[in-house]
Amino acid sequence: VIYLDQAASSFPKPEPVVRAVTDCLSQVAANPGRSAHRLSLQAARLIFEARESLARLFGVSESRRIVFASGATEALNLALLGLLRPGNHVVVSSMEHNAVMRPLRYLQESRQVQVTEVQADLSGNIDPSTIRAALRKSTKLVVVQQASNVVGALRPLAAIKEAIGEVWLLVDAAQSAGAVPIQFDQDGIDLLAFCGHKAMLGPQGTGGLILRDGIAPDPLVRGGTGSRSESDEQPDFWPDRYESGTPNTPGIAGLGAAAEFILEQSIETIAQKLKGHARQISEGLRTIPRVRVVGLSLSDLALPTVSFVVEGMAPSEVGRLLDQRHQVLVRAGLHCAPAAHRTLGTFPQGTVRFSAGFFNSSSEIEEALAALRDVITRPS
Ligand SMILES: Cc1ncc(COP(=O)(O)O)c(C=O)c1O
Question: Is the pTM of this model over 0.90?
Fold first, then answer.
């Protein structure tokens, strides 16, 4: 198959990631930090090392400020549900994923949290000054994704943080982590949710939240941590405050190996490669009759996530034919981001999305473009 659904989950995974997961399952697999025997200590070591590798990759000075979660969704829920109180105001962009919009809708209804949606332009870009103009005295958070899962432009995080001053910036880096350089401390980001299984190239069921020192949301989950076991109160130190219950040790071991893999390749080299794929997809699509690429001028393109519509064909039909006839696997529809499609004018039918990744080659992209041409000219 030609797998161009990397924005949903990356495939294949680097060999060291697969090895780290299987080694953990076959050789360690004890409960980390719970017992004093050698396998438990070894499992705890795997988790510690994964946290350290992620801290190096994301420019975080203290690894304890990285909290593991089952993915970006759980990390965003921890930030939003843990921080927002009745009367707080939040500013979001009109491009956000349901992983942000659904918890916020819940908080609007259950805690009277107020939400202002700032309109992005037709490329999905948001001017930092429009975010600043939406701030109120009661604004607690600004939430923006670094990269959209519908169109591959990047938000200027440092400029947004500068525009909002003391208000906390929560970044949804589900799509961008592992794809572009992130310097958490340097860019003044306050909270950042990342996903382990997309451009990070790690296993599904992994991800996390990075918190600036001094920001302490209420935990989502409370329970055993292997620390302060004499007390029935949740520990107040990090990361234990947020990591109750037996962790996903094999997944975290794989995520640590993925972070090391990215550090070895260098994130700058990866970003360059992905930008090349983005350009190839976007330019190739523009040569195919009846295809309209959504959003994004070529100069905005950073990530190889490109959405398009085909005149006279439903996105789901294009996706089905690409799979059935050519084994080209893409995603069609709303991509869990109806707000983004409203912004881009493609709601409710959505788009077809080609999303490439580190392991795709340019010849695969050429083949996928040829397959699309065939599907459009010979629809049945
Ligand atoms: C922009 C964005 N935010 C959040 C998520 C949720 O990520 P996860 O699968 O890690 O929960 C996704 C996944 O599709 C996404 O694209």
Answer: yes
